[in-house]
Amino acid sequence: MKRGNEESITRALNEIWPRVKKKHLFPQIPTPVVGENDEAVAIEMKDKQIILNQRVCEKLAEEMPREDVIEALLDHGTSHYTYCPWDLSTHLFLYSETKQVIKDPEMVKRVTGYFMDIVGNTYCVKEKGTKIPELYKYLERQSHTFQRTELDKVISSLYQRIWGVNLDVSGYNDLSGRLSRIPYLDKDRWSKSIKSFARIIRPLLESEKEKTAGDGNSQNTMGDHGLSGYSEEEIEDGLREFAGKTGNPEEFKEMVSDFEDELKDLGFGETGGMGRGHGESIDADLLFYMKLAEHFNIPIQKIPMEKSGSMHPHSHTPWEVGRPFQDIDIWTSFGKIIPGITQVWNKREGEIFGEMEGTPDCIIVIDSSGSMVNPTKNLSYAVLGAGCASDAYLRSDSRVAVYNFSDAAAGGKQLLDFSRNRKEVYGTLCRYFGGGTNLKLKDLEVLRRKSKTDIFIITDMQITNLEKVIDYFSEIDNRVTAVYIGRHNRYAKRFEEATQKRKNIALYNVDKKEDIPSIVLGKIKEYFRMAS
Amino acid sequence: MKNPFVRFKDYESCKREIPLDGIIRSKDIVIDKLVAGYENIVEEEVKSLVWVVERSRLMETYSKAKEVISDLEYTAEDIEEFCYELDSNERLPYLITGPSGIYISALCNHAKETEITLKLNELKRKMHLIGYQLPEGKRLIVEGDMGNFIGTRLEGGELIIEGCVKDWVGAGMRKGKITVRKYAGYHTAEWMMDGEIWVEGKIRGIGKIINGKVYEMGKPANPSYSSSPSYEGYIR
User: Is A196–B19 a contact, with Cβ atoms under 8 angstroms apart?
Assistant: First the structure.
């Protein structure tokens, strides 16, 4: 019997879906399917797939035509992809705005979900011609069956007011009156709107939380809105955009912790917490800088072509007596050895990619002393800049080694050998010591000798052994990209003066995030040939 | 060439007017008017770097605010929304907390409702002078912590602050009742003429009271001591 019902719902779904799809202007989402679970949730969304709950559909179809139920649910689900939230970035934006009013993550998720439902439903009612009002009317009539909470009733009362339809809900005039003043369909005002919405319904949520403290069961009949509704690419994009939008590692970390379980299910943070530094897991910081760095693309100056030293035939000239026979081109000499007729090959030195072809490896030297920003607390341009540089080398199939230093002589340092593992690289970059600033050049030399490599150093230049560092960079032939953070100071000036005649050293300043893309890695004032 | 959009030729948008559109339109008009009224009263005040709270200045600003809002029709929700507009600083280039408090008080005092609840818990800034000249028969409930000079020159109304207040609460109040659910700052009830102030938490300092009663944590707290009184303060 159950199987028969499922088939008939699927049949109806297949008939209705093309119509709904056309109504919503052909969104790029897969054909919805029918599923079953015991929860009183009518609709679920996983990886952009709408799944209708057969049990709830059947229950709803007892009083409403089945086609209308399916169409209304499909309108509702589709509106989340076509209008609100549209993408994960908007979802996270709404979430973070709500977080400014309510701190409890579960409540914030509920508020965000309800807000998105109201926007989506109201959009359908206003612009698409939908059976959603009839669906809500029935849900309210069967409020016990569908475990409708007080908040659900308030929302229905709001719908009654803003859609101008009778949903048989009485009471809640004060709350619905306040809620009806919110411009749900004005995207530009969603930031303020969701905050007002959260402020108004917060007391209700709090009292509901107290009531349901025992069973914790307060589901949204129209489904919850988690990260599972989005595809993997959307989650990657969403996190990247959110990192760019917030620019604040703490806020990003808070959001990641709120969605930790869902993100873990989706494969994020598989390497586990770094657990280094002060014993806190900084996975979220790592993710923040990884995502933020994806906004920037630093170019790398490739090493120009080198002459290989081998000769190759280039052109013909007539043979003369005394010239070696081995250069004779027998095919164009007609088998004869006669001056003027016989031709010899002129040979030239070949130009091919030599030993240093493409992009070399890179040692990233990052200053994490007390004068630098703590990357876990505030946006660190040093970590971001170093992250962007690492990404540029990793994208070019090169390897990156990291030398993170503070007071290196006293052990305040962390080294990562040449690696292609982005998480390891960022893990080392995000480490913050917060002590003095001393660079141990022997450590750097050990890394430098392992590979022919570029060097990228990012610091505020307030290094206690700056003179030694300058001498060291003046002696080596590797390409050095030095970046100093913050305003021009006397240390940076000293470095600039001492290295300005060196053709292998380029100096940049990063005072704001936007300065990062102007760095050209490995840029040299004049082509400098690596000593082979 | 075949028109690639021919497939959508028969598509008709079902867009229709819903009550929400009308509600938002009329609400926006009211808020615009409230904002314009505020801009009107702060035009002059903005020239002062520091807004000094003195009797004549308060009276003058209040009279101007009354004049500006005399023709406006608004509700308590509009006042609350206007407070958040002020706080967000998006539409209003400047917020001078003194005149803005007087303006909000004037709005409350002349609203149709006899009981007004303002949920201001999420304001980033503390509002001053809320409840200024609250008349008899009015009840104003404010949720959230407030700034200085709350309930100044109260005229018989009932003011309830569901949070803390800073200094000078009830300064020069004539009659009526102020209830503060949490703490009050220095100079509480300075130059109070009559009425009652109930502070459910602690009071940091009581001013020179002429008449009236002050209660701290349910007990009478009329002063045996007084902090340095001078009915003049500065709002930056």
Answer: no
SS (H, E, C) A161-179: HHHHCCCCCCCCHHHHHHH
Residues in chain A: 532
Q: Which residues contact B119 (CB under 8 A, 6 or more apart)?
A: A199, A200, B80, B143, B144
The dihedrals phi and psi of A461, each to the nearest 5 degrees, come to 75, 0
CB atoms within 10 A of CB B185: 17
- Backbone φ and ψ of A416, nearest 5°: -125, 125
Query: DSSP class of residue B88?
Result: H
> Nearest CA to CA, how far is A389 from chain B (Å)?
38
Residue B18 contacts A, CB cutoff 8 Å: yes
B19 and A162 in contact by Cβ < 8 A? yes
* Closest CB to A161 among B19, B84, B121: B19
Q: Which residue of B20, B29, B80, B85 is the best one to mutate when testing the A interface, meaning the one whose CB has the most A CBs within 10 A? A: B20
Averaged pLDDT, A451-472: 89
CB A88 within 8 A of CB A238: yes
User: In chain B, whose CA is at the least distance from the CA of A130?
Assistant: B14
Beta-carbon separation of A162 and B18 below 8 A: yes
With a cut of 0.85, is the ipTM above it? Answer: no
Which of A124, A176, A181, A197 should one mutate to test binding to chain B, selecting the residue with the greatest count of B CBs within 10 A?
A: A181
The answer to whether A34 and A52 have CB atoms below 8 angstroms apart is: yes
Q: Write b or e for each residue in A269-299: b if 16 or more Cβ atoms lie within 10 A of its Cβ, otherwise e.
A: beeeebeebeeebbbbbbbbbbbbbbebebe
Q: How far apart are the first and last CA of chain B?
A: 69
The answer to whether A155 touches A118, Cβ cutoff 8 Å, is yes
Looking at the partner chain, which of B13, B18, B24 has a beta carbon nearest the beta carbon of A164?
A: B18
Across the interface, do B14 and A128 touch by the CB < 8 Å criterion? yes
- pTM as predicted: 0.77
Which of the 8 DSSP states describes residue A160? I
Could you give the dihedral angle defined by the CA atoms of residues A255, A261, A263 and A267, in that order, rounded to the nearest 10 degrees?
A: 150
Alpha-carbon distance values, A368 to A154, A282, A287, A335, A376 (Å): 52, 15, 19, 74, 12
Helical ranges in chain B per DSSP H: 19-45, 55-69, 76-88, 97-109
Q: How far is CA B214 from CA A187, A444, B140, B170, B223, in A?
A: 49, 72, 19, 10, 9
SS (H, E, C) A222-284: CCCCCHHHCCHHHHHHHHHHHHHHHCCHHHHHHHHHHCHHHHHHCCCCCCCCCCCCCCCCCHH
pLDDT tens-digit series, residues B68-119 = 999 899 999 999 999 998 888 766 666 677 788 999 999 999 999 999 999 9
Distance from CA of A160 to the nearest CA of B (A): 10
Chain B residues with CB inside 8 Å of A195's CB?
A: 122
